[in-house]
């Protein structure tokens, strides 16, 4: 019920009804008043007319019986009449009912109806007289006294009286009719008002529904435009608004998608911050970075954890409204960070940070500087020796030929060493740039390895190291390889092993054949390689002896070259600590495909 009063239909309906009821009320009241007066006046007029006619008849007709008949005809049923003679006695009475005598007496005694000075004008008066139809009831009557005269002499008076009841009856009937029509008018207004308001508001209701649809994001909602009035124009405007909204929302979402796909496909991490340093938006790269940092740093539970370094930079950017660039290490990775302020109008609403992963560049940079340091270190020692000894010879510091020959021998050794270093470096550079040419041919593994072992037998004997090999018997193992290069690898491995094994130790070469590969192990019982160094031994210039004393002579390039050679043959080389002590190098090489 409350809903109908809250709706426009209800309000419009109620207003129209109120208005119509008010108008009907006033019209009915005025009409009733008017009808009442009208009926009374009409009744009075007709009584006057009848009185005048009767007066004339009495004067003209001398025949009393016909006179009575005519007068009876003239008077209508409700009207009563008396003819009073000059002696003020009732001569005739028409339509007289009950209480005739009391009525006559009352009328005759009324001084207004029969003024003492006889005038020739009718008098009209309302009186309360006993009822003609009911006993013991008083009623209101209109009484007219009409004196009639012949030759200016008053001959008598006609008195006509009529109960007001009759007039009231007519008035009551008309009142009924008026009320009935007002009621019908009210009912019709109710129905029409309801239909009118529903008709006016039904497009409004459609509009309301459409507006709700629009607010839910359903921009395709269309309103039918049926009329050309304000409501029709409203519907047109509404449809236009829907189209515009759809267009703009699509534009915004397209922009957003474009932006987000750009952000997602970027290699750089991008984070947008609010003024309160909370993260507004970040791309997957940034999320990964933050998560990495979060786990590695073990930061405390925080809603928006950011590294403190970035936080400080952000503070600076937001406080001083200037761009900040820096390089940082986060969770083991190096990043170039640039943070710039974001403006909204003139005020700063946040900042955007772009983080570029510089770890690889860093590594390369380090590798380059290490390489230069190593090369110059490796070259400086022999060069200074060459200089020293050659100066000594030039200055003639040597005591005898033997000493001089010794010095020349050292100079010769060192220059050979330098030459070897340069060749090794060149080899390595060529291999790493992919320019190494392999001259592959079929090679039987066992004779090949036996030859290398035999080459080292004397060296091992001199070093008091037992060099042994374990080959599978009667096995023909064929590989398709560059023999010289492989010799370089195993020469280095065996040389390393003998050099790093104390007197009385063992160096063993073991060959095992698999379905499509052969594994060649070089094991020794020497000093071994520290576990933490194992991942680095294949890098250039790696030496377990950090002091780089020259006692055991190499350049630290042998294993790097070996790894490159094995890799380019499609094999693998690994190093591990020996089961008891020492080191175990294993090469796995593919067998020749049959
Ligand atoms: N079998 C081994 N036992 C202990 N340490 C070893 C062994 N093999 C290699 N190393 C360590 O690894 C380092 C690198 O070896 P690599 O063969 O690359 O260089 P090098 O022998 O010093 O010099 P080059 O082989 O160029 O003459 C060596 O200096 C040594 O410290
Ligand atoms: Mg070596």
Automatic annotation (TrEMBL):
The chain crosses the membrane at residues 12-32, 177-196. The keyword Hydrolase does not apply. Pfam families: HAMP, HATPase_c, HisK_sensor, HisKA. It is a multi-pass membrane protein. Residues 198-250 form the HAMP domain. Its EC number is 2.7.13.3. Residues 374-593 form the Histidine kinase domain. One of its GO terms (molecular function) is ATP binding. It is found in: Cell membrane. It comes from the Bacteria. The keyword RNA-binding does not apply. Keywords: ATP-binding, Cell membrane, Kinase, Membrane, Nucleotide-binding, Phosphoprotein, Transferase, Transmembrane, Transmembrane helix, Two-component regulatory system. InterPro entries: BphY/WalK/GraS-like, HAMP_dom, HATPase_C_sf, HATPase_dom, His_kinase_dom, HisK_dim/P_dom, HisK_dim/P_sf, HisK_sensor. PROSITE patterns: HAMP, HIS_KIN. It catalyses: ATP + protein L-histidine = ADP + protein N-phospho-L-histidine. PANTHER family: HISTIDINE PROTEIN KINASE SAES, TWO-COMPONENT HISTIDINE KINASE. This is histidine kinase.
């Amino acid at each position: 019920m409350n809903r109908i009063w809250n709706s426009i239909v209800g309000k419009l309906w109620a207003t129209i009804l109120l208005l119509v009821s008010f108008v009907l009320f006033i019209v009915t009241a005025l009409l009733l008043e008017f009808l009442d007066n009208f009926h009374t006046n009409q009744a009075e007029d007709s009584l006057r007319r009848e009185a005048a006619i009767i007066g004339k008849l009495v004067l003209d007709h001398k025949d009393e019986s016909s006179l009575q008949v005519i007068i009876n005809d003239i008077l209508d049923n409700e009207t009563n009449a008396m003819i009073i003679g000059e002696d003020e006695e009732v001569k005739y009475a028409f339509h007289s009912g009950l209480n005739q005598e009391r009525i006559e007496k009352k009328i005759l005694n009324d001084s207004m109806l029969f003024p003492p000075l006889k005038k020739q004008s009718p008098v009209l008066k309302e009186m309360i007289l006993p009822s003609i139809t009911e006993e013991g009831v008083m009623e209101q009557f209109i009484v007219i006294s009409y004196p009639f005269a012949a030759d200016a002499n008053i001959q008598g008076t006609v008195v006509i009286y009529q109960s007001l009841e009759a007039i009231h009856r007519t008035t009551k009937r008309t009142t009924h009719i008026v009320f009935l029509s007002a009621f019908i008018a009210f009912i019709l207004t109710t129905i029409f008002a309801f239909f009118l308001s529903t008709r006016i508001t039904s497009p409004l209701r459609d509009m309301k529904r459409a507006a709700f649809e629009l607010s839910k994001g359903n921009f395709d909602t269309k309103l039918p435009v049926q009329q050309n009035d304000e409501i029709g124009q409203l519907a047109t405007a509404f449809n236009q608004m829907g189209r515009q909204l759809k267009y703009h929302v699509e534009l915004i979402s397209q922009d957003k998608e474009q932006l987000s796909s750009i952000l997602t496909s970027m290699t750089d991490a991008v984070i947008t911050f609010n003024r309160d340093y909370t993260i507004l938006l970040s791309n997957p790269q940034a999320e990964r970075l933050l998560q990495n940092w979060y786990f590695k740093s073990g930061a405390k539970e925080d809603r928006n954890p950011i590294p403190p370094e970035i936080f400080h930079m952000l503070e600076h950017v937001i406080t001083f409204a200037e761009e900040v660039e820096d390089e940082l290490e986060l969770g083991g990775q190096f990043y170039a960070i640039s943070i710039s302020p974001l403006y909204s109008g003139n005020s700063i609403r946040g900042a955007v940070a772009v983080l570029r992963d510089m770890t690889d560049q860093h590594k390369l940079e380090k590798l380059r500087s290490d390489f230069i340091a190593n090369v110059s270190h490796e070259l400086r020692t022999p060069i200074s020796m060459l200089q020293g000894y050659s100066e000594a010879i030039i200055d003639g510091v040597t005591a005898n030929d033997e000493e001089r020959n010794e010095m020349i021998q050292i100079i010769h050794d060192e220059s050979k060493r330098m030459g070897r270093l340069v060749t090794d470096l060149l080899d390595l550079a060529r291999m790493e740039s992919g320019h190494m040419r392999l001259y592959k041919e079929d090679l039987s593994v066992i004779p090949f390895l036996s030859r290398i072992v035999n080459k080292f037998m004397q060296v091992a004997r001199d070093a008091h190291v037992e060099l042994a090999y374990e080959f599978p018997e009667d096995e023909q193992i064929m590989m398709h390889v560059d023999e010289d290069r492989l010799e370089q690898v195993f020469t280095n491995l065996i040389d390393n092993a003998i050099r790093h094994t104390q007197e009385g130790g063992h160096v063993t070469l073991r060959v095992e054949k698999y379905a499509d590969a052969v594994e060649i192990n070089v094991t020794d019982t020497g000093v071994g390689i520290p576990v933490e160094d194992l991942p680095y031994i294949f890098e250039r210039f790696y030496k377990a002896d950090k002091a780089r004393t020259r006692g055991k002579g190499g350049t630290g390039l042998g294993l790097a070259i070996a790894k490159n050679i094995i890799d380019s043959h499609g094999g693998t080389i690994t190093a591990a600590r020996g089961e008891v002590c020492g080191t175990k190098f294993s090469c796995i090489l593919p067998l020749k495909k049959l």
